[in-house]
Amino acid sequence: MSGKKERITVSLDPGVAAGLKAAAEQAGAASVSEYVEGALDARMLRDQWLARWRAAAGDVDPQALAYARRALLGERAEPHPQAS
Amino acid sequence: MSGRVLTSSAIVDIATDRSVYGRAFLVAAVELGMTFPTPSTSLLQAWAAVPPQARALLDLFLDAPAVVVEDLGPSVAGRAGVRAHAAHQAGRFDVAAAHAVDVAITRGFPILTAEPGPLRAIDPDVEIEELPAP
């Protein structure tokens, strides 16, 4: 990432702000800014790839997606018979 | 960080839409920030298996933030090969399956596959998540 930084101001719910500071500390980030920058960069990378995938392959079957999310999170999941 | 190790059958599923579940797992993994370690040998099998019109999606699959290709270096080859000796003696040896089992054990992840047989031949106890049938 670029060494030159731009300061921006965001408004957060107090609970989210407290959680953010704790998460940055737990992750060993040098600062909250460093933690936020890393998290946003990863999120934007994910969103950009998802948009490219949807443009190329179309939308994923919603029932299959719900099944996959539950399975990946270790929750009990049964494939939906109507997923097509 | 959690995830699943992909086999060639899972990759082919994703690239060709053989069932709706392969792509669902990939998209869900990206959304959830999970990792899909992909053995290079599984990738080779998938490139050989998919029809030409699916190759662009295979390229896009490789760009997914979840996908991390695991190469087959000499230390992995030795470890995975020794583990697969019994399967080889029984005539049930598959290079990519042996590689996937090693990645799964090293990472502590289950394997996502449409074809569990070759994996079970290497290690009957390896954790497998089977893609639902199309």
Describe the fold and architecture.
The complex is a heterodimer of chains A (about 80) and B (about 130). Chain A has about 80 residues and is an all-alpha fold. Helices cover about 60% and strands about 0% of the residues of chain A. Chain A has helices at about 15-25, 30-55, 60-70. In chain A, helix 1 (about 15-25) crosses helix 2. The relative contact order of chain A is 0.07. The longest helix of chain B is centred in the first third of the chain and has 13 residues, at about 20-30. Chain B is globular. By secondary structure, chain B is mainly alpha-helical. In chain B, the strands form two sheets. A three-stranded parallel sheet of chain B has the order 1-4-5. Chain B has a two-stranded parallel ribbon with strand order 2-3. Helices cover about 55% and strands about 10% of the residues of chain B. The mean pLDDT of chain B is about 95. Chain B has eight helices and five strands, in the order E-H-H-E-H-H-E-H-H-H-E-H-E. In chain B, about 50% of the residues are buried. Chain B has helices at about 10-15, 20-30, 40-50, 55-65, 75-85, 85-90, 95-105, 115-120; strands spanning about 5, 35-40, 65-70, 110-115, 130.
Tell the overall outline of chain B: globular
Based on CA atoms alone, the radius of gyration of chain A comes out at 18 Å
Largest sheet of chain B: 3 strands, parallel
Order of helices and strands of chain A: HHH
Question: Percent helix among the residues of chain A?
Answer: 55-70%
- Low-pLDDT residue intervals, each spanning 5 or more residues of chain A: none
Terminus-to-terminus distance of chain A = 42 Å
**Could you say which structural class the secondary elements and strand pairing of chain A correspond to?**
mainly alpha
Shape of chain A: extended
Largest interface summary = A-B, 22 and 26 residues
